[in-house]
Amino acid sequence: SGSWALAVGNEGVGVRAEIGVSATNRLAIPMPGGTNSLNAGVAGSILLYSLLTSGSGST
Asked: Tens digits of per-residue pLDDT, 36-54?
């Protein structure tokens, strides 16, 4: 199992280029309906929950 980090960017710019080029995987949260963005704290919480419950992350 390797190390991982989660970087959450803002809706206008995303993550800084220095961080983006280091990424080996990128995740997106599907948002059907009229929602086009989430608060960064909410988005980070959803992604962490998904990673930890899928077995991709470790505690």
From this structure: 778 888 888 998 898 889 8
